[in-house]
Amino acid sequence: MLQSALSRYSGIVAANTCWELIRQGAQILDVRSPAEFAQGHLSQAVNVPLNQLDTWIKQQQNKQQPFVLYCAAGIRAQMGCDILRANGFGCAVNGGSLQDLLYSQPAA
């Protein structure tokens, strides 16, 4: 079900939808630089800078794993989604910016 939900999205997805996908098991990828990541990030996020995504992809075995990507504004996240899809990962959505996701993060 999660995969079919993800397949409907292209472009930046509303933050509340991203949080629902994360709640359902999507992995969060922060595609900003390590320096940006060190300045603040979502606690659940894995830092995979956009310029290292091609290398990281080769280490992934499950191409069905759903992903929510974010960056500073959503541009690099969209590029990351495009790279993932071009490499057979059909379950990637653009979560937009870190700030948008932080602002809409559900209460614990």
UniProtKB/TrEMBL annotation:
UniProt signal peptide: none
Boundaries of every Rhodanese domain copy: 22-106
Top-level division of the source organism's lineage: Bacteria
The entry's keywords: Transferase
Pfam families from the UniProt entry: Rhodanese
CDD domains in the cross-refs: RHOD
UniProt GO molecular function: transferase activity
InterPro entries in UniProt: Rhodanese-like_dom (IPR001763), Rhodanese-like_dom_sf (IPR036873), Thiosulfate_ST/Rhodanese-like (IPR052367)
Protein name: Rhodanese-related sulfurtransferase
